[in-house]
Amino acid sequence: MSFFRKIRAPFHEDWCNECGATMDVMQKQLFMLPVMVDQYEPTKKASYFTSNLIKVGKKSEIPVGYYACGAHSYRCPDCGAKLVRLSVFLPVRDEEKYEDFIFFKNGEMDEFLRRNYDGK
Ligand SMILES: [Zn+2]
Description:
alpha+beta; five-stranded antiparallel β-sheet; 3 helices; single chain; 5 strands; binds zinc ion
């Protein structure tokens, strides 16, 4: 591991925090967060997301004024570290207005994502 890779890691979520390698995206899934615009209360609790997120196939299935949440599972090809990133955003026309990013390193979302995965 080079020093350069190590120091830039914190600035990019797809670089492994442990060793600095670029992580592979293992799984992506889109969800709706049934919370209306401006009602989202930032939280880091996995249980909040596992009990509220509703799997959707595409953004157009989310009613106007509600939040979307993208889940990305990453795995480091070098050291095997895993990371799940949730991105809470508001789909506004063609844009995505990001509200929050939540990271889970300890598998908190794994079981939920396994059950709610389209395989795309
Ligand atoms: Zn790594």
